[in-house]
């Protein structure tokens, strides 16, 4: 049996502390939003849930720490999916409690909830990628290019969280019920899937990471984040007169659409102008019906004034 690879203990501890601290903050919100006997019941439920989550996290986080120095990010994808799945369920109940109690206009607590999510979620993604531990990416230019691509992922996460935060932050006029539910679960799916796509691009390429071929995430984010969220913000601003729409992120979406479209067109041109692989050239140069190409030995060159060397025969042993 092959022994498991060594675990990066600081990486495991850091990711575990970040995950459990964010879960504890969400639990504090849920407990404080309830009063009387219901508060004790909610406290017991979230405590039991956190203990079960910690048991699962104990095994997943260890394997995430074991694959940090490798090209694989499979367990990192599992941990991300598990974390967002549980965290967003708690956020949903917090959002519903704020919606039910519209008289509670504690703007500071709502802004603090947005701030906690906007820090913990991107930081955890950076920890799971662990680009500084990619010892197999030795070229500084290639590592910086990967870091720039991951920066776009972090910005996209903040973009999605900004859309989602409009649901629980104080608002003068509420959106229709179907629009709020659709917006929340759309952001939920984006937070679940898109970072896993970015991690899978790194994992599938293995040791030979070619940053310019990591085009799956930019194409998906171009459609699902930059175009759709631009439509969502424009609709909220024009139809519902929502003053909380971020004009800066609208400008970010416009610039991202232009830049990602240009990079995709440039990538297509590079793929079309690239020479065919060596194996395809050999197949084209081969004769019809797969005839083997006859290899002609190079002619023997004899310099003027010199005699060719005699062929050396193997010695016969007596």
TrEMBL record:
Transmembrane segments: 12-30, 42-62, 74-93, 113-131, 183-202, 214-233, 245-265
InterPro entries: CECR6/TMEM121, TMEM121
Pfam families, per database record: CECR6_TMEM121 (PF14997)
Keywords: Membrane, Transmembrane, Transmembrane helix
Signal peptide (UniProt feature, chain positions): none
Family: Belongs to the TMEM121 family.
Annotated PANTHER family: TRANSMEMBRANE PROTEIN 121 (PTHR31046)
Official protein name in the record: Transmembrane protein 121
């Amino acid at each position: 049996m092959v022994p498991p690879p060594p675990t990066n203990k600081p990486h495991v501890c850091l990711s575990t502390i970040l995950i459990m601290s964010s879960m504890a903050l969400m639990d504090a919100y849920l407990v404080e939003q309830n009063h009387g006997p219901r508060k004790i019941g909610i406290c017991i439920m979230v405590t039991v849930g956190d203990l079960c989550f910690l048991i699962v996290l104990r095994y997943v986080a260890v394997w995430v720490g074991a694959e940090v120095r490798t090209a694989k990010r499979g367990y990192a994808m599992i941990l991300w999916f598990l974390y967002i799945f549980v965290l967003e369920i708690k956020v949903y109940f917090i959002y519903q409690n704020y919606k039910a109690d519209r008289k509670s206009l504690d703007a500071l607590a709502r802004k603090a909830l947005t701030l906690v999510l906007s820090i913990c979620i991107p930081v955890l993604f950076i920890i799971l990628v662990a680009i500084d531990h990619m010892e197999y990416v030795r070229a500084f230019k290639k590592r910086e290019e990967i870091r720039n691509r991951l920066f776009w992922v972090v910005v996209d996460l903040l973009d999605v969280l900004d859309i989602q935060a409009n649901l629980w932050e104080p608002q003068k006029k509420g959106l229709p019920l179907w629009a709020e539910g659709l917006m929340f679960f759309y952001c939920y799916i984006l937070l679940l899937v898109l970072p896993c796509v970015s991690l899978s691009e790194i994992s599938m390429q293995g040791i030979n990471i070619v940053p310019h071929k990591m085009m799956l995430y930019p194409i998906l984010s171009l459609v699902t984040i930059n175009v759709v969220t631009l439509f969502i913000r424009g609709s909220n601003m024009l139809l519902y007169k929502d003053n909380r729409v971020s004009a800066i992120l609208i400008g970010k979406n416009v610039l991202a659409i232009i830049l990602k479209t240009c990079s995709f067109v440039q990538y297509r041109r590079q793929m079309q102008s690239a020479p065919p692989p060596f194996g395809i050239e050999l197949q084209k140069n081969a004769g019809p019906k797969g005839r083997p190409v006859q290899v002609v030995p190079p002619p023997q060159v004899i310099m003027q004034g010199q005699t060719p060397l005699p062929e050396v025969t193997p010695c016969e042993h007596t």
